[in-house]
Amino acid sequence: MTHSLFISDLHLSEDTRRIEQGLTTFLEKEGDLDRLFLLGDIFEAWIGDDDDGPLARRFADIMKRLADTGTDIYFTRGNRDFLVGQTYLNEFGAELLGDMVCKEVAGESTLLMHGDLLCSDDVDYLAFRAIAHNPEWQADMLGKSLVERRELAKHLRAMSKEAASNKAEDIMDVNDDTVRTMMAEHGVSRLIHGHTHRPFRHTLKDAERIVLGDWNTTGWCLRERDETLELIEFEL
After folding, report:
1. Which site in 3, 16, 81, 106 is 20 to 30 Å from 130, CA atoms measured?
2. Within a domain: 124
3. Largest CA distance in the chain
């Protein structure tokens, strides 16, 4: 029996200790777990794998305890934690996945991604994403001191919140044509993603798009047990 969990959008920070504890409790209650897929925005911000802050250490400890039980852990970068690297993930034996990857889920090939690339109507964000994913920009960012990077991260988060408040809701949701194109390019009939904070199971023509929810007053996950998938909301 394959037992997997798919979660995203915890947006962990020093202000979200309740969510952090909720994650720990949820994983303990879930029991034996074969695979855990972390599909982006696990952290509200990530300033580099050399971050010496307590949150990075606490999360690594949570994941290490899980990995020690035999769980395979996979991490996809989100728009908040796009600087997470394999160096940090090695602390708990996780594998860094690309922006889009296919894995067998519930008996069929399934496309997994954070989901920001599906929001193709949000041209301002995609323009920033192209800059932030440029290796030269990242090298320059990571070359700064931790103090400088923390200040820059605060500035970028503030800019992001202000920009989002001025955008129409549909601009920040997925573009249906982009969804169909990406699924066709990967030859799949199932897509799992987060990012939009709009949890739902969308039935498409001969296909399905499953959206994970963000963690706030409640938590969300998609649970796989053999060929059964269940989108779950639970109290933290």
Report:
1. 16
2. no
3. 50
Residue 21: domain span: 3-119+175-235
**Rounded Cα–Cα distance for residues 177 and 186 (Å):** 14
Nearby residues of 129 by Cβ (< 8 Å), 6 or more positions away: 79, 116
- Rounded Cα gap, residues 191 and 180, in angstroms: 10
Burial classification of residue 87, based on how many CB atoms lie within 10 Å of its CB (0-12 exposed, 13-18 middle, 19 or more buried) = exposed
Sequence-ordered list of residues with C-beta below 8 angstroms from that of 231, at least 6 positions apart, any chain: 199, 200, 201, 210, 212, 220, 221, 222
Give the count of domains, the chain.
1
The CA distances from residue 46 to 40, 78, 81, 147, 232, in Å, are 11, 10, 5, 13, 27
Amino acid sitting at position 16: T
pLDDT 10s digits, 18-40? 999 999 999 999 999 999 999 99
**Per-residue model confidence as pLDDT tens digits over 43-69:** 999 999 999 999 999 999 999 999 999
* Separation CA 186–CA 102 (nearest Å): 8
Model confidence, pTM: 0.95
For residue 78, tell me if it sits in a domain.
Answer: yes
